[in-house]
Amino acid sequence: MRLLHERHVLHCDVHPGNIGVTPRVPLALLLSPSSPFDFNDLAHWQVVFIDHEWSHVRGWHYEDTFVRNRMWLYASDRQVWCSGKYSTPDDLEALAYILLAIYYSGRLPWRSDVEAESAKYPQDFGEDDSDLEFVFETRERHLRTLRDSCHESDSASDVDSLLADLLDFVFYARALNSDEVWIDYSRWESLFHERFTRTSQSPAQ
């Protein structure tokens, strides 16, 4: 993502299917301890950075309602509210949500709530501001609950500290202004590279 942004390219449609590390098999299987697939086997991955069927390279147009609710799970707060021109912090916030989803075996903590609510109004969910408020408030509630539980935990396990780091990244991305000129990519690249390197070298539990 840093390389895209350095070349003045906005992804504009960041979701698990097109961030460059798309699994050929369900993510939950790759992450499962009993999985028959090797997470590190490149044969189980395909490189997809931008799926042109879904992406708008010149910017996400908030008036385009084409199955828009699919994007809400990962879209930044600003884009949920359709408030402002799409920018690099929106890409980063969506990426932060994807990393959190990977931690939870491919399912965001607020996904079930949003899907259950949208299923009540499959034809017009999202046309009313109350729907946007529901998406925003549900995500906000889950994130703050997770962060509070991390702060209250006495555990020093790698799993718990990884979640704490992921949440720090999420809240960092959410706090960026839409016109933010400088994003500290190096800080997060170094942190997660060290994290995932350590994880890949750890003996299987």
From TrEMBL:
One of its GO terms (molecular function) is ATP binding. It comes from the Eukaryota. InterPro entries: Kinase-like_dom_sf, Prot_kinase_dom. Keywords: Kinase, Transferase. Residues 1-196 form the Protein kinase domain. It is an enzyme of class 2 (transferase). Its EC number is 2.7.11.-. The keyword Transferase applies. The keyword Transferase applies. This is Protein-serine/threonine kinase (EC). The lineage of its organism: Eukaryota, Fungi, Dikarya, Basidiomycota, Agaricomycotina.
